């Protein structure tokens, strides 16, 4: 469905240090990192797209917006918990601890954080644990 999703950041190096371990935990490969252009992108390990990109604002100051959120799929609930804990260790802010969110559907297990720039992120698993 998507070619790419881009999240604006105000400090490229800080953002790269935050996102690189989180993308690695989910098995996404760094496709490129261009510090001279203040942007980087990750891709699934087995495909060229979709891409998740971070980069400086195109003009003016960065604004995380209200209502935007990037959500990442995790293979299982344990990975959701590890990702959330790692995001907090890396300077993210808690927006919702790992847990079931049955108001979405019976097996929705997710966690929410804000990155150091205030962008809202989610990691979730839709599979039933058995």
Question: What do these coordinates show?
Answer:
There is one protein chain. The chain is an alpha/beta fold. It has one domain (4-57, 68-125): 2,3-Dihydroxybiphenyl 1,2-Dioxygenase, domain 1 (Roll), CATH 3.10.180.10. The protein is 21% helix and 36% strand. The chain is built from two helices and eight strands; from the N terminus they run E-H-E-E-E-E-H-E-E-E. It has helices at residues 12-25, 77-89, and strands spanning 4-8, 28-34, 39-44, 51-55, 70-73, 93-100, 109-114, 120-125. The protein has a four-stranded mixed β-sheet with strand order 1-4-3-2, with helices on one face. The chain has a four-stranded mixed β-sheet with strand order 5-8-7-6, covered by helices on one side. Helix 1 packs antiparallel against helix 2 (77-89). The protein is globular, with a radius of gyration of 14 Å. 26% of the residues are buried. The mean pLDDT is 95.
Number of structural units classed as domains: 1
Structural class of the secondary structure composition? alpha/beta
CATH fold type: 2,3-Dihydroxybiphenyl 1,2-Dioxygenase, domain 1
User: Tally of extended strands?
Assistant: 8
Strand order of the largest sheet: 1-4-3-2
Write the H/E string, N to C. Answer: EHEEEEHEEE
The general outline is globular
Helix content: 10-25%
Which sheet architecture does the biggest sheet show?
4 strands, mixed
CATH top level is Alpha Beta
Oligomeric composition of the shown chains: single chain
Through-space gap between termini: 30 Å
